[in-house]
Amino acid sequence: xxxxxxxxxxxxxxxxxxxxxxxxxxxxxxxxxxxxxxxxxxxxxxxxxxxxxxxxxxxxxxxxxxxxxxxxxxxxxxxxxxxxxxxxxxxxxxxxxxxxxxxxxxxxxxxxxxxxxxxxxxxxxxxxxxxxxxxxxxxxxxxxxxxxxxxxxxxxxxxxxxxxxxxxxxxxxxxxxxxxxxxxxxxxxxxxxxxxxxxxxxxxxxxxxxxxxxxxxxxxxxxxxxxxxxxxxxxxxxxxxxxxxxxxxxxxx
Length: 253
Prior knowledge:
Layout: H1 10-13, H2 45-48, H3 56-62, H4 80-93, H5 101-117, H6 126-132, E1 139-141, E2 147-149, H7 172-183, H8 197-204, H9 218-223, E3 226-227, E4 232-236, E5 239-243, E6 247-248, E7 251-252
Helix pairs in contact: 4-5
């Protein structure tokens, strides 16, 4: 709709957004929320421990207290708070309220992504998942490495402040429709243009380099060469690979 571009400053959409460096704050753009190159390291405990008191708005206000541990653009460091801020900023650009970020994001995602692709059962609402009584159970190892199922966190509050970075519940069938939409350069299985091929391709462009851990075979190093915007970019057998893993407490993808 022309309301937002990759180069729109985050503070234009989230007035309370700030990082530790006051000079860097106004320079960070929507794209920078997803590049894993801002200098912000992973600091998950800062939103997991206080989750019961944390809202998306408070989470964004708290980001000014997170340390910057690398100069901008120089080192790959994934930060869930910043990814979430990018998602919430997109919701504001879509007409949502900066004072109701969680609600605004759920609506924007439904209207702009899930409904056009055809993903009606995919949801942020855990109570909806539980009511359907057809869901995977989280598992975790004990001190001896044995896997056990763990209770589904019924309140699920710890993910709410960073919902855009991992709170979505879906199914294999609906995730396949999502992958098909990516592979068809933004065109959903039923033909709807969900996102422009140009914008999608922008997310696949290699950005900050990923440093290879010592020891792995070269095939694994080439599989993860750079980070794009929310995607790991590499190659396998001469073919370009675009991928991402992820996990929440007791789940892995």
